Every structure is written in structure tokens, then in C-alpha cells.
């Protein structure tokens, strides 16, 4: 029997209480989600950057709407058996919007929602020019998010982007406020040194999330070091779409330069295996069952 949304939420909350780091690969559409879902991860992470890029072909700069994002997240949640953590940007407006967003994401089958304290329109956390709202306003958003959920198993992740422009002390002050407001997990975005990461982990008494972005501001650390520092979750939002972009460009170059893809076959997913990944076995079995 397929895992229900409630099952997946309970699974993630329980895993959060157990030893060891939760590694959550970034997924952004159903191909990356299906691939990751088969690999035994404790959680998946729907990256806002990747979802906006793949769905709209636009930068992650506050251009996607609530409807865009909840639809994408719901498709991934319904099509996978692994608990899904989903980016919900700033909550898409004021307090009433946050209430609506939390209820919508929970109804869509998400296991955990991530909300951040940037001004609207927001920007990707590893790009310049980010500005944050007053900490008190974000704390209200966190309280509303916690009140809006139907189940305590639906986790609220509070992210602060204050470090880059306002410094680590302000980021830590905000993180503590958001923890006191009821956030289940705290996400201090874009520390630039291991020393900053150490201080974050020493200061905040809540499960902490580390954002491992290849080419981003934060040092890429191995699992053992992240665990030693005190992180509980590590997300890898860009890994899949960066890999996909490189691979697609590579095979298209082969096609353009040689006029055939024959020289790239060893770099392609086998067609029959890909068809099975997308669920064609059920179609084949259905056709056999109902054949004249």
C-alpha cells in the first residue's frame, strides 16, 4: 500500500528524533522526483529555484505565485512515497496569505513547509541584494503557520536571510525568535565559514538545516562534519538541476557537432528503464488485462 500523506509526515517527524543527518536531495519536477524517490532518502526537498526554473524558465526572484508552487509541490508529493519538504518562499503575502499557504501545502500532501523572512519579492538565498522584513513580523508569520496546520506532524521550517546583509548576530537573534514562535526547524541561510556554522549550531536549540549549494556561499561539508557541528538536515537543492543542465548541454553538443546521438548513448538513461521509471509497467499490464 502506498504511503499516505499522514504516514510520510509521521515518518519525517520520527526521523527527526533519531540520530544521524537527514540528507534531502533537491527535486524540481517529476523526473528528478521519481529518480530520487527510488533511492531510499529520508526526505526530498522541492527547491524553489529549480521549480521556478523548470516550470517557468525564470529566476527565483519572487516571480512564481502560490498557485504555481503549491501545484508543483502537490504533484511531487502525490507522485512519490518519500516525505517532501517544500519551499514556500515568504508565504506569498501577509499573515492571511501565510495561513492560506500552510493550509494549501498541508492539503497537497507536503510533510514540511519552509518559510523565509525576506521582503517580497524574494531572491534565491545565495544571490546578492536580499532584504529582510522586521523580525517581529516574521515571528508573527511563524505563529500563524503553526496555528494554521491541522497536524503537528506537518513541520514548519523558519528561514532567516539576515546574515548576508545584517550579520551573524542579527541572524541568530532572529533564529531564536522564530524558534520561540514555534518553528520546528530553524534554517539560517548562507553562512560563509565553518566558524559561522559552528556558532549557529552552538546557539540554536532546535533542529537545524544546512543548505549545501554547489557554487554557493556556504562551505560544502561532508555528512560526518555536518553531524559533528550539530546539523540535523542537509538539503542539496541545486545538485540535480545543475547535473541535468550539464548533461543535456553535453549530449546536445554531441548531436549538433556529429549529427547523431550515437556517440552519447553511454550517457543516456536506457529507454526501457526510463519508461518503467515513469510507470509504463502499469500501462502495459492494464492493456494485457483488458485486451480483446
From TrEMBL:
Gene3D superfamilies: Phosphoenolpyruvate-binding domains
Record keyword Lyase present: yes
Keywords of the record: Lyase
Name of a matching Pfam family: PEP_mutase
A GO MF label: oxo-acid-lyase activity
InterPro entries: ICL/PEPM, Pyrv/PenolPyrv_kinase-like_dom, Pyrv_kinase-like_dom_sf
Protein name as annotated: Isocitrate lyase/PEP mutase family protein
Organism: Futiania mangrovi
Amino acid at each position: 500500500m502506498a504511503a499516505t500523506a499522514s504516514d510520510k509526515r509521521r515518518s519525517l517527524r520520527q526521523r527527526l528524533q533519531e540520530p544521524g543527518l537527514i540528507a534531502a536531495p533537491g527535486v524540481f519536477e517529476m523526473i528528478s522526483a521519481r529518480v530520487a524517490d527510488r533511492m531510499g532518502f529520508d526526505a526530498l526537498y522541492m527547491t524553489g529555484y529549480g521549480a521556478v526554473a523548470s516550470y517557468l524558465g525564470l529566476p527565483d526572484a519572487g516571480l512564481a505565485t502560490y498557485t504555481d508552487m503549491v501545484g508543483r509541490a502537490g504533484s511531487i508529493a502525490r507522485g512519490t512515497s518519500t516525505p517532501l519538504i517544500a519551499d514556500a518562499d515568504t508565504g506569498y503575502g501577509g499573515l492571511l496569505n501565510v495561513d492560506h499557504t500552510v493550509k494549501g501545502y498541508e492539503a497537497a500532501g507536503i510533510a514540511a513547509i519552509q518559510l523565509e523572512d525576506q521582503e517580497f519579492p524574494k531572491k534565491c538565498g545565495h544571490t546578492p541584494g536580499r532584504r529582510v522584513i522586521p523580525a517581529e513580523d516574521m515571528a508573527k508569520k511563524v505563529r500563524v503557520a503553526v496555528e494554521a496546520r491541522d497536524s503537528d506532524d506537518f513541520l514548519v521550517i523558519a528561514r532567516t536571510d539576515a546574515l548576508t546583509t545584517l550579520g551573524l548576530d542579527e541572524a541568530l537573534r532572529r533564529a531564536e525568535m522564530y524558534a520561540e514562535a514555534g518553528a520546528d526547524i530553524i534554517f539560517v541561510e548562507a553562512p560563509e565559514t565553518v566558524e559561522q556554522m559552528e556558532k549557529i549550531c552552538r546557539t540554536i536549540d532546535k533542529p537545524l538545516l544546512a543548505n549545501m549549494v554547489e557554487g554557493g556561499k556556504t562551505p560544502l561539508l561532508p555528512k560526518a562534519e555536518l553531524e559533528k557541528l550539530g546539523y540535523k538536515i542537509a538539503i542539496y537543492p541545486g545538485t540535480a538541476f545543475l547535473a541535468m543542465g550539464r548533461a543535456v548541454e553535453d549530449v546536445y553538443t554531441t548531436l549538433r557537432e556529429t549529427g547523431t546521438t550515437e556517440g552519447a548513448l553511454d550517457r543516456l538513461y536506457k529507454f526501457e528503464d526510463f519508461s518503467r521509471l515513469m510507470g509504463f509497467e502499469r500501462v502495459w499490464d492494464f492493456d494485457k488485462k483488458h485486451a480483446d
